[in-house]
Amino acid sequence: MTTGGSEKGRQSLRLRWLNARNRMLASPAFQRFAMRNIFFRRTARYHANSMFAVITGFVQTKALTAAVDAGLIRRLAQGPATTADLAAVSGLELKALQRLLGAAKAIDLVELAEDDLWVLGQRGAALSTNQGALAMIEHHKIFYDDLADPIAMLKGGRGQGKLAAFWTYAPAAGQGQPATADDASWQGGGDGAVAPYSALMAASQPMVAEQVLDAYDFRRHQCLMDVGGGHGAFLAEVAGRHPGLAMKLFDLPAVVEGAKARLATRGLSHVALHGGSFRDDPLPQGADVISLVRICHDHDDAVVRALLKKAHAALPPGGRLLIAEPMAGTPGAEVMGDAYFGLYLWAMGSGRPRTAADYLALLAQAGFATAREVSTALPMVTRLVVAER
Ligand SMILES: C[S@@+](CC[C@H](N)C(=O)[O-])C[C@H]1O[C@@H](n2cnc3c(N)ncnc32)[C@H](O)[C@@H]1O
Question: What SUPFAM superfamilies does this protein map onto (predicted)?
């Protein structure tokens, strides 16, 4: 038998198994049997619970948004409170508040310490200090508006809704328009248009930077250039651990303009600022390590291919390129890489989630001598691929 034939044989074996499995799982008689059988019951209950968590996910998200917007998380972060205290903070009528507290308790945002004395639940406590997650909860309102009719969103094509208007660089990029650094329609016409997304990225950056810094040792380098570095939040986190490292920031001119004062207030006036577009301009030389943090997934393949080539050209021999972002096909975090980013980037109008293997292939095509993945503690937040020129 030829290799092609045995491959086909394996596929049909897999297809036969999947069909048989699905027929069994779809059968109400089997479902009843699994629930009653002492050996299958745990697995059956687990799958039933996870299915209902997906079905009710929207309600959970809305309860979370309401708990944050009503000020419950902020108030309880300061200490225990009675229902009456929380009514005063939230402005909600008692019955409505009790209903919201019940929902927030069910998703572990709050809990009762004793009769009518509320404290944060385990999830609520972790959330209360996570500025990045809080900023995302607020930001998601526009994404979820775009998702109100998901089929319409998919039929309408990429970048047709509110999210695309938020990411001012994305819609034109997704339509393959030849945007330039001084094209106001794409750049958004000044700091006003890029400030909201830059602030959102800065708020959520520390959790990403922590993963990268724990996984990668910058001590071997002299100069780091963060491409698409926004207001410099990643560089600030790196500088906190490696104060001697020289730094460069490359981003769109309007973003770099906004970074200047923010870097100065963080004592980082020495960061060299470069305004430009990596779609049109070469990357500055002089760094022996370049980082692309949450950049590549925003762009279509042609742009990423060209960007990796530019990074290769800007690095000296032995120089390194780091790609850090949540990726597709991440075991245990498929919901983040594939479901969330898949639909998010569609709504945004540009890019796609890629696997680590996709990046290794793109890096080899761009001329890098070696590339490998370096494990991070929380791959859901970011994975890390390191290439050497
Ligand atoms: C998703 S944000 C990530 C920001 C930052 N790296 C982080 O992780 O917080 C993408 C960044 O890429 C920048 N960007 C987008 N297109 C660009 C281009 N053509 N040239 C330079 N920067 C660009 C944006 O201005 C923005 O700061």
Answer: S-adenosyl-L-methionine-dependent methyltransferases, Winged helix' DNA-binding domain
Determine whether the shortest distance from the Cβ of 297 to ligand 1 is under 6 A: no
Instruction: Quote the longest CA-to-CA distance of the chain.
Output: 76
Is the shortest distance between the CB of 251 and ligand 1 below 6 Å? yes
Whether residue 269 contacts residue 261, with contact meaning beta carbons closer than 8 Å, is answered with no
Find the helix or strand (DSSP H, E) in which 79 lies.
Answer: none
Q: With a cut of 0.90, is the ipTM above it?
A: yes
Question: 214 C-alpha vs ligand 1 centroid, how far in Å?
Answer: 23
- State if residue 205 touches ligand 1 by the CB under 6 angstroms criterion: yes
Closest atom, ligand 1, to C-alpha of 194? 25
The predicted model gives 308-326 an average pLDDT of 98
What is the tens place of the pLDDT at every residue in 46-66?
999 999 999 999 999 999 999
pLDDT in tens, 279-302: 999 999 999 999 999 999 999 999
CA of 346 to the centre of ligand 1 (A): 17
Q: Which residues contact 317 (CB under 8 A, 6 or more apart)?
A: 389
**242: annotated active-site residue:** no
**Ordered domains of the chain (ranges, CATH):** 26-129 (1.10.10.10), 162-175+196-388 (3.40.50.150)
First to last CA, the chain: 43
Catalytic residue among 139, 231, 274, 297: 297
pLDDT higher than 50, residue 185: no
